[in-house]
Amino acid sequence: DTGVSQDPRHKITKRGQNVTFRCDPISEHNRLYWYRQTLGQGPEFLTYFQNEAQLEKSRLLSDRFSAERPKGSFSTLEIQRTEQGDSAMYLCASSDTGTGGAYQPQHFGDGTRLSIL
Amino acid sequence: QKEVEQNSGPLSVPEGAIASLNCTYSDRGSQSFFWYRQYSGKSPELIMFIYSNGDKEDGRFTAQLNKASQYVSLLIRDSQPSDSATYLCAVNKGDMRFGAGTRLTVKP
Fold first, then answer.
1. CA distance A21 to chain B (A)
2. B99 and A42: CB-CB below 8 Å?
3. Which of the four pLDDT bands, split at 50, 70 and 90, describes residue A89?
4. If we measure between CA atoms, which residue out of A83, A117, A87 comes closest to residue A13?
5. How far is it, in rounded angstroms, from Cα A43 to Cα A8?
């Protein structure tokens, strides 16, 4: 079990540029989640996948954000035309599928810190 | 009303004392509840999860769930300075919702 891996750890870019982050989940986990966290707040849900299917997407998520998980393994999160307000820590988590209505614990990667100049 | 509410703290306890962290949630249909610990600049780390009413113990940690009152708590016994962190309560109903966290300081 190598844990959830995220790349890059830090990203600095100019406003208006596009950025892409990658997440590799724990290998046996079929659910993958993306969150955004700003200082002093808890993680904010963005979207999640079960295998390659995107099952939920936050209504707060701008059209500039898109996520994919093409083969049900790693996932990418892209932000187009970045804005100052996109500066945050972007967290990825994965979990196994629960049974009987219970959701299994999610395990987080170290995150990608995005800074918009 | 926020979906998951926690006292922001800071909560300060002396070393060796019991720290009590509380959380309320708004969705009565929620089934899965989690506590995460987050050190400054680090990602959340799973501490406990609980699905059924009552208490669940793991070492120095006890999670308590009361679905009728929509309340979940975390007790940390024999608190250590290394427990100083922000504790996040989370409720999963497909998309997991986090509280803003309670900052705990354990003083030697």
1. 16
2. yes
3. very high
4. A117
5. 19
